[in-house]
Automatic annotation (TrEMBL):
One of its GO terms (molecular function) is ADP binding. It comes from Linum tenue. It comes from the Eukaryota. This is RPW8 domain-containing protein. GO terms for biological process: defense response. Belongs to the disease resistance NB-LRR family. Keywords: Plant defense, Repeat. The keyword Repeat applies. InterPro entries: Apaf_helical (IPR042197), LRR_dom_sf (IPR032675), NB-ARC (IPR002182), P-loop_NTPase (IPR027417), Powdery_mildew-R_dom (IPR008808), WH-like_DNA-bd_sf (IPR036388). It holds the Pfam family NB-ARC. Residues 15-166 form the RPW8 domain. The keyword Heme does not apply.
């Protein structure tokens, strides 16, 4: 019998027993029965054996029922009538009291009462027979509660902190050419004298792939179990940031260390606190700039081992080199990429294929990228590519293998020349930091203005799928839905309009990012259309600070800094700047002064992303915004939003605000949130993972042109104001995963243009408001996956004549069954969510 079936069969009994304990009156009745049994044992010795059996049965049932009830409350499970059990308890109490009053002169009644006590014992025994099943149900509930806690903790912490590497990368199915290197790595790593091993190879050789295979290997899993840490390091990391990641995985919120020595001290304490079990720390992509971290990892802790991947060899550490693939494996990997499975291979001459494979030099990255770029292309393209690869010269400075690999990848990008917008989208991925997990929603904001792609993101995500198919990027969907037919069904898509691609992210191989930056740097700085500036350890390029002011004509500008950055004077002008991306990780940040010094800046999209561990203060935000009179979209991540951010200036053009992981208390304070006048044309607000959002400011309800309001993962949001009914033009209201929200106001009935309502994972919301029926003309879609089984659907939904879709889960789908029979347009879709935690390994969200 499956776990689900067991839960269904035991549900009524489990919840009945729980309610007996929970309800004050019923609990008193059961307590009185037990008290009566104990009293009767003292007064009616003739019935003592039977009464002792009854006492034992009650004492067994009560604590289990109490624990089940507590767990049921956490899981928001419904309760059912338990009148048969209550009747047994009431009659049993009366019977025991009568037994205690029997005297010697009424002893003729004993046989009759003895039979009745035996029957009572039998009735209770029938419940006792379920104890093992109750215990199983209790254990299942415990697991469900723990899974729920871990799920919320992991998703919340991962997105809130922007972690790079807590969980293992996804397992790699059917890897080509790594069996022998994996065996060799295990043999060397498991030697007693090996505490730190560097796996070294040129870029694109598969170092991360081999490290991933190692972590998923059966022998490694058995040895290290849950003590495996996989952390991307890269150029910009520090000792503090690495230790922060390890601490936050273990449940510590926002750890702060007073320098590297303090971080080293705390790391040693953390490792020792894990007990005697072996510990594996994998540091992926360590550069010479961060190799000093390895010196800090020498602890006298038995079983603690470190695996490092790096492009370089560091002679002071034990190392093992990973070589490119041999000819046979290279051809296999290339064929897997260039030819569709289960399809006849096109008639491509073997000498052409062999020439292309040869020029890829055994690099897995080159073999897959070039193979994908040729998939489905005619023979003429294959011949041209083979010729170009054989004639290509060095592209970048570095070793011979580096140059050949870059040349190979550069030629493979020629396939994108036929799709210029897709190629531009590919180039824009380098605007974000190395190893970053790039939000698709941020890319959509950019591309809708730069390339006039649709606002809903369909074209943008289609471009991302194309890049993923060519191995030029990886598209990561952190939540997918497994579809199952219930009632009436249509085909479901991985994303819904209400979600706005909030669960879609993009990663890119470091080598491809470097290639983009190299290609973007071929033109003079003043003439580049896309300018990417990376500042590490406060080493600002000279051209930014020269006395003579430099005029740059880029449309897109990205500036990335690390925690060592301090504000500096930028002696530049950007009169044509359309999109700006600022990535930083300091606790306080001062925006470049060139942004605040002119009213001629035509900036349309501003993306400000703090990828540290806690919200940062931005010192000169108001001054910046005063100069951005053309701004249409602004995205803020992990920022402490000041109270005057949206109230001091009139943003006539601002259409969309996205606030993620931000501290909003000051900005949304009633005394400082009068924003209706400064934002007359605002159409969309997105608020995600803002833990200090407790109530929605009434002023937001005065934004009469607002069409989309999305509040997601704000766990402390307790209520919506009745004034929300003033949003007459609102078409989409999303409140998913707001687990503190207890109800929807009746004022929702005034949202006459509402088309989509999403309350998924709002477990404390137990009903739709009666006024929902007032949305009959336009409401087409309701999402309520993860809501309580006790959910109540009012009959007024019958007025929703245009309701087409209800998305829910197995528990709530039956609630809609009566309505489906009447509402002919309505289709109920059961959604089983699959949460993919592997996204956490690749970078911040």
């Amino acid at each position: 019998m499956s776990k689900h079936q067991i839960m269904l069969e035991l549900s009524s009994i489990v919840q009945a027993m729980a309610q007996v304990v929970q309800d004050a009156f019923i609990g008193a009745v059961m307590g009185e029965l037990l008290k009566a049994v104990l009293e009767a044992q003292r007064k009616a010795a003739a019935f003592k054996p039977t009464l002792q059996e009854i006492e034992s049965t009650l004492e067994t049932i009560i604590p289990i029922a109490a624990e089940i009830q507590e767990l049921s409350e956490v899981l928001h499970q419904d309760k059912r009538e338990i009148e048969p059990l209550m009747q047994v308890i009431r009659e049993g109490k009366d019977l025991v009291l009568k037994c205690s009053r029997i005297r010697w002169y009424t002893c003729w009644k004993k046989p009759s009462y003895k039979d009745k006590l035996d029957a009572l014992e039998g009735s209770l025994k029938s419940y006792l027979d379920l104890v093992l099943q109750l215990q199983m149900a209790r254990d299942i509930k415990k697991n469900l509660v723990e899974v729920k806690k871990v799920q919320v903790m992991v998703l919340d912490r991962g997105r809130r902190a922007g972690l790079e590497g807590y969980f293992l990368p996804a397992a790699i199915p059917n890897p080509v050419g790594f069996q022998v290197p994996l065996w060799e790595l295990k043999m060397e790593f498991f030697k007693d004298d090996t505490s730190l091993l560097v796996l070294s190879a040129p870029p694109g050789c598969g170092k991360t792939t081999l490290a991933t295979l190692f972590c998923h290997d059966k022998d490694v899993q058995e040895r290290f179990k849950d003590n495996i840490f996989f952390i991307r390091v890269s150029k910009k990391q520090t000792m503090e940031s690495v230790v922060q990641r390890m601490y936050m995985l273990k449940g510590h919120r926002d750890p702060v260390f007073q320098g590297e020595e303090d971080a080293h001290y705390h790391l040693e304490n953390l490792l020792k606190s894990m007990g005697s079990n072996p510990i594996l720390l994998v540091l992926d992509d360590v550069w010479p700039e961060t190799v000093y971290i390895l010196d800090k990892l020498k602890f006298n802790i038995p079983g603690f081992k470190v695996l490092v991947t790096s492009r370089s060899v560091y002679p002071k550490y034990k190392y093992q080199k990973l070589n490119p693939l041999n000819d046979k494996d290279s051809r296999t990997l290339f064929d897997n990429s260039a030819f569709l499975p289960d399809q006849p291979k096109p008639d491509i001459p073997k000498d052409v294929i062999n020439q292309i494979v040869k020029e890829c030099k055994g690099f897995p990255l080159a073999l897959t990228v070039v193979g994908r770029s040729l998939c489905g292309e005619p023979i003429e393209v294959w011949r041209t590519r083979a010729m170009a690869l054989s004639e290509a010269g060095p592209v970048m400075e570095g070793g011979e293998l580096y140059s050949e690999l870059y040349s190979c990848l550069e030629k493979s990008l020629d396939a994108l020349d036929k799709q210029p917008k897709v190629k531009q989208c590919f180039m824009d991925l380098a605007l974000f930091p190395e190893d970053d997990l790039i939000p698709a929603a941020a890319l959509i904001d950019m591309w809708s203005e730069l390339y006039k792609l649709d606002e809903d993101g369909l074209q943008a995500v289609a471009n991302l799928y194309q890049l993923s198919a060519r191995n030029l990027a990886d598209l990561v969907v952190t939540r997918r839905e497994r579809k199952e037919p219930v009632l009436k069904v249509t085909i479901l898509f991985d994303r819904t309009d209400a979600e706005g691609y909030n669960h879609h992210f993009v990663t890119q191989h470091d080598l491809l990012r470097e290639l983009i930056i190299y290609q973007s740097s071929l033109e003079p700085i003043e003439q580049r259309d896309r300018l990417i500036v990376e500042i590490f350890r406060n080493q600002v390029p000279d051209w930014c600070t020269e006395r003579k002011q430099l005029s740059i004509h880029c449309r897109i500008l990205s500036i990335s800094t690390d925690e060592k950055f301090s504000s500096s004077s930028w002696r530049i002008q950007a009169p044509e700047l359309q999109v700006m991306v600022l990535n930083f990780r300091t606790k306080t940040f001062t925006l470049p002064k060139f942004m605040t010094g002119s009213n001629e800046n035509p900036l349309e999209v501003l993306i400000l992303r703090n990828y540290g561990v806690s919200p940062a203060d931005v010192k000169n935000f108001p001054q910046l915004l005063s100069s951005l009179s053309t701004l249409k979209k602004i995205r803020l991540e992990q920022i402490s939003i000041p109270p005057s951010l949206f109230t001091t200036f009139h943003f006539q053009t601002l259409e969309k605000i996205t606030i993620v992981l931000c501290r909003v208390t000051l900005a949304f304070n009633p005394s400082s949130s009068r924003i209706s006048q400064p934002l007359p044309n605002l159409k969309e607000i997105n608020i995600d993972y803002c833990k200090d959002l407790v109530e929605l400011p009434i002023e937001i309800c005065k934004l009469t042109n607002l069409k989309k309001l999305r509040i997601t993962n704000c766990h402390n949001l307790a209520a919506l104001p009745d004034e929300i009914g003033s949003l007459k033009n609102l078409e989409e209201l999303t409140l998913s995963s707001c687990i503190g929200l207890s109800e929807l106001p009746e004022a929702i009935g005034y949202l006459g243009n509402l088309r989509s309502l999403d309350i998924s994972e709002c477990a404390d919301v137990r009903k739709l408001p009666e006024a929902i029926g007032e949305l009959g003309k336009n409401l087409k879609r309701i999402q309520m996956m993860g809501c309580s089984k006790n959910f109540w659907v009012p009959d007024s939904v019958l007025k929703l004549e245009n309701l087409e879709e209800v998305g829910c889960d197995e528990d709530t789908a039956p609630l809609w069954e009566p309505f489906v029979q009447v509402m002919k347009r309505l289709k109920v879709k059961v959604r089983k969510e699959e949460i993919n935690l592997n996204w956490l390994h690749g970078g911040r969200f």
